[in-house]
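Standup notes, protein team

Yesterday: finished cleaning the Psychrobacillus soli set.
Today: Argininosuccinate lyase structure.
Blockers: none.

Input for Argininosuccinate lyase:
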Amino acid sequence: MTKLWGGRFQKSAEQWVDEFGASIGFDQTLVMEDLEGSVAHVKMLGACQILPQEDVQQILGGLEQLKKLAADNALEFLVANEDIHLNLEKMLIDLIGPVGGKLHTGRSRNDQVATDMHLFLKNRVGEIIELIELFQQTLIAQAETHVETLAPGYTHLQRAQPISFAHHLMAYFWMLDRDKDRFKDSIKRIDISPLGAGALAGTTFPIDRKLSAEYLGFANVYANSMDAVSDRDFIVEFLSNSSMLMAHLSRFAEEIILWSSSEFNFIELDDSFSTGSSIMPQKKNPDMAELIRGKTGRVYGNLMGLLTVIKGLPLAYNKDMQEDKEGMFDTVHTIVGSLKIFEGMVRTMTVHKERLHDTVHKDFSNATELADYLAAKGLPFREAHEVTGKLVFLCIQRGYFLLDLPLDDLQEASSLIESDIYDVLSPLAAVRRRNSLGGTGFDQVTIQIEEAKKRLA
Ligand code: ARG
């Protein structure tokens, strides 16, 4: 089959060579973006009187037909035509005749592919922002029902201090909020048109880049044609923002997995977000959370992959840059799926309030209360820490907890201790009293949830 660029060639490559070089297997994802880019380009060519209106109308008619066929999945892409751009151009010429060959006036595949990628990412990032917001709403809804649910808070995965379970959930709300901000901020670097940059140097035709950008809804145009066709940093940034999001989801996934184990037993995932074992009938596995934790690896991989691809590339376009696509498509697919799954998983999970309540009553996570109590009575905190540590040790030896210690033992350790200590040591009081800004005290958590709702409104 003759190539659209075949004039200079005496023989063609063998098919397996073509197959290695072709991107049509994956860049057909960009079919609509490519057609829209062509529509804007040819309208601009007409408006600037570079092509006669008659030709423009014919080309637009052909592009419309192609759009319909694409929507019906009725286009047949060929490896021989290399990529989405040449496939569509060939189809256009087959459809409307040689006039279709005028579409590529004043344009190159280099600005064309960059335009497609900008259009694609702009739309997808918008969708991702909406999905993050949906998940945030679910987190707020779960948090609202668990403001007064006591839970153990950990450091080093050792019981540290009791907290409100809502506080723990809301921590993820704020991580996601920053992720969302990063995606939002990135839009101003995606929303820029490379169209009209040509192969690298611009064009001799009197084109109007701002007009084609306006047709495509871009807020801006690249100021430098070489930068326009060489830039992939907007994709690196997307992969980086996605990596950060996945890091957050992966930490949450890890907690979901721990919490649903028999050892923790803090939550139970809904059947609809769990799987069974083919051999062990009793199993209910948190597969979805595990998969999200695992998929984080491929998103990081996509980021490292692209950073490595662009490192050391001389300006301007190089075929290496065709490698920007699969990682980006894969990342969009992965984070969209992960966000949807996570939202459903958190919305439908059952929180074992009783078990959480029991847990904080059978540990030493109220030890800080005793130390703070002594410090508030004037004992230097370091000494208060020492006294409390010794009492914890005494409890461990006797096999019980601080609240079980008789007043005599407590007073022997420090004469500053009075009978009000038992109220102070209650986990409920411990949480309620942590009322510093952003703390886990119920009032603060309620304020925090209100703030979060305002952020979403
Ligand atoms: N398929 C190519 C890519 O994805 C399109 C650009 C080709 N440009 C070129 N000069 N060969 O990068």
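Follow-up from PR in the comments: Residues 23, 27, 83, 85, 109-110, 113, 317, 319, 321-322 surround arginine (CB under 6 Å).
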